[in-house]
Amino acid sequence: MPSAYEAFHKAIREIGQLGSIEGLLDWDSETIMPDGGLSARAEQISLIATLAHERRTSPTLGELIEQLDSRVDDPIEQSNVSEARRMYERASRVPAELVTRLSRVSVLAKEAWGKARAGSDFPAFAPHLSELVNIKRHIADLIGYKGERYDALLDEYEPGMTSAQVEEVFTALRGPLCEFVRRLAHAPRKPDSSVLHRNFPRAAQESFARHLAEAIGFDFSRGRLDVSKHPFCGGTGPADVRLTTRYYEDFIAPSVFGVLHEAGHGIYEQGLPEAHMFTPAGQAVSLGIHESQSRLWENFVGRSREFWEGMYGACQRAFPDALGSVSLDAFHGAINTVSPSLIRVEADEVTYNLHIILRFEIERALIGGTLEVRDIPAAWNGKMRELLGVSPPNDAQGCLQDIHWSAGMFGYFPTYALGNLYAAQFFEAALRAIPNLRDELRRGQFAPLLAWLRENIHQHGMRYRAGELVHRVTGAPLTVEPFLRYIRTKFAPIYGLNIT
Ligand code: ZN
């Protein structure tokens, strides 16, 4: 007779396995599946999702969680039980018909969104979006919340985080960030990014991207790098991590920084404890913490002067025609140009968070019921002017640019900015813990930083919630100061500004 914990462990492990099978099916359809496989794949994914939902809401699992809740004292077991409870409650409070309705509505909404964006026709998408907002509001009410309705949706992506906490950090960020963007716009020096748009042969990009991922610590004996339209990091667990990227022969940045970004996600996955694979104890804390790992390698390391002091020679050898006569300073400036723009995914690391603040304010108001769907374009354009000083010429380059809302994903956007803030705070802590870290980066030695991340973040899986983890690792709660210090210290010299 297995103990209650053993029975519970087997049940949640199988739920995790179903999720990882779904992830692999997704990876395959994004990378190598022929178009003809689409409808069979949709059926397979839908079956796996149904099975996982049944398991997640099974009354037997509910009883086991009840039984174990106050009786486990091992921290690993505790994190499994408390996360399973969160999953169970979220899933069992929403009736299966509503889940099916949401997925049906979002399939149609995604299609309508694609067409509406192509024709820059927001009114054509608006009825779909209204229906999704209504369903998500209903779901949030069923799940329940302490503060406001949006909290119930945010909790799906950033467990434990509330709208009030997000608002607090975004409010602290907003003013100083807008001010700094204005100062950069009037700076005496402006880097030139045109060198990134020369001819970069694809084969050389592929081998350089692989070299970068390997150099920072991505283990190719337990992972792969392939090509997809939208880059992502997937796979089945720490020993099988799948990265993807894309290559443009007339623009080097997407493959170099895309791969550093996805490899950052992948390095986190590879560092999760394999002994707890498929269970919460072996999984990532939250989307925000996941994003902190990708941003840390992409930006804090990968766009730093030290990184390229060690790496630029190899880069010039990989692309002699394009970069042979470009100085390190010119290259470092080019990869660090800041300019307020319309499109989030093309934004630099200074303006990026402003794009997120805008989306958070709009979706929070939509879910809270203080903004109507038809008023989104006006709200969007007004906030773009206020935060970034630019005006979208049409909705395709404005409120129709992202896929998230058409997939019913409300509460997802804040995790991108939280990732940047967590990354800044972690990186400061790493610099304190490893006093010669900058020299190590200059020499292309990434192992000390990787070891620090493994020990402080990766190995814990889901043992701590994001807020608790940040506090433990950095000695302080989440704050915007490290991020503001980082951008000021980094960009002032590039732009010839004095920081006082
Ligand atoms: Zn990411």
How does this model look, in words?
The chain has helices spanning 4-31, 38-56, 59-68, 75-92, 96-118, 122-143, 149-157, 163-185, 202-216, 253-271, 287-301, 305-318, 320-323, 328-334, 352-368, 376-388, 414-433, 437-442, 447-456, 466-474, 481-495, and strands at residues 223-227, 233-237, 240-245. It is mostly helical and 500 residues long. It is globular, with a radius of gyration of 23 Å. It folds into two domains: 4-161, no CATH class; 164-412 and 419-495, Neurolysin, domain 3, CATH 1.10.1370. It contains 21 helices and three strands. The longest helix is centred in the N-terminal third of the chain and has 28 residues, at 4-31. It has a three-stranded mixed sheet. Zinc ion binds at residues 261, 265, 291, 294.
